[in-house]
Amino acid sequence: MLRLPDTLLDACRCDPRTPLSGDPERRCGLTHAEARTRLNALKPWLAEQQQLLWARRQEALLLWLQGPDCAGKDGSIRRVFGGLSPVGLNVHGFRQPSSAERAEGFLQRYRRCLPAPGHIAVFNRTPYEGVACDLFDGFIDASSLAGRLTQLAQFEDELATLGIRLLKIYLQISRTEQKARLRRRLLDPRKHWKLCAADLDAHRQFCTQNAHWAGILAASHRDAAPWYIVPANHKWLRDLLLASLLAREFERLDQHWPTPSLPFDLDTLERA
């Protein structure tokens, strides 16, 4: 088996009683070298599965990637999906919505980016920003949370009816690790563009925001659309877990190459 076993993947499945109680520093019994070797071995298989998805054009895969600042959303997308064909792969990053986007409803900008059959879409930040960040930024009050969570559950159910298989991932890092990554960005001029004043505010509020996200994860984890909490202090483990969860979704599709009637045979081609 190229991917990690179900026991390790299921251990990342959100526990609604204590969503963020796991240790983001854990290594799952792996070393850096072992994880890199397994990821490199898994990538060609993922690439073939993407080709099968594109050839069949029946289902679509949608990955929602959430996590605190510096959790590695960009990095994991680059390392896990970098070997796939850009044809049929769509990556969307969602920053703070514009005033026009706020006026049309918090789910609309995500609806516009849903994948067509045969495609994989990755959302860097998810519709749950409309529950967490909109509250932090003062665009909604606490009385709006229950209604938005209901809308999100309905949206997820709608995706299933459209043949879009949803994978919800929360990258968990510690406050200490976040601070270390912010420090590295400050020391590397090539990464200064990633920094903004809000990063410092978010770090100062790490514990408060972490607790709020724990509540959101607990309230929105369902058997029909579960959350997976991926320990992300170690980038090499984060990437392998993410790739393995994606691989398991492909396995569940049980894909086979299409067998259409051929438009011409080899003899006809040789005579052409």
Strand content: 5-15%
Count of spatially separate domains: 1
Task: Assign a percent range to the helix content.
Answer: 40-55%
Indicate the CATH topology.
Rossmann fold
The CATH class, by name, is Alpha Beta
Element-by-element helix/strand order: HHEHEHHEHHEHHHEHH
Order of strands across the biggest sheet? 2-3-1-4-5
- Structural class of the helices, strands and pairings? alpha/beta
Count of helix runs: 12
GO molecular function, one term: polyphosphate kinase activity
Pfam families: PPK2
Domain Polyphosphate kinase-2-related: 33-250
Protein name: Polyphosphate kinase 2, PPK2 family
Write a compact overview of the structure shown.
With about 270 residues, this protein is an alpha/beta fold. The chain has twelve helices and five strands.
Task: Write up what this structure looks like.
With 272 residues, the protein is α/β, with parallel strands linked by helices. It has a single domain (6-271), classed as Rossmann fold, CATH 3.40.50.300. The chain has twelve helices and five strands. It has a five-stranded parallel beta sheet, sandwiched between helices. The longest helix is centred in the N-terminal third of the chain and has 25 residues, at 32-56. The mean pLDDT is 95. One of its GO terms (molecular function) is polyphosphate kinase activity. Residues 33-250 form the Polyphosphate kinase-2-related domain. Pfam families: PPK2. Keywords: Kinase, Transferase.
Describe this protein with a few key phrases.
globular, five-stranded parallel beta sheet, Polyphosphate_phosphotransfera, 12 helices, 5 strands, alpha/beta, 272 residues, PPK2-related, Rossmann fold
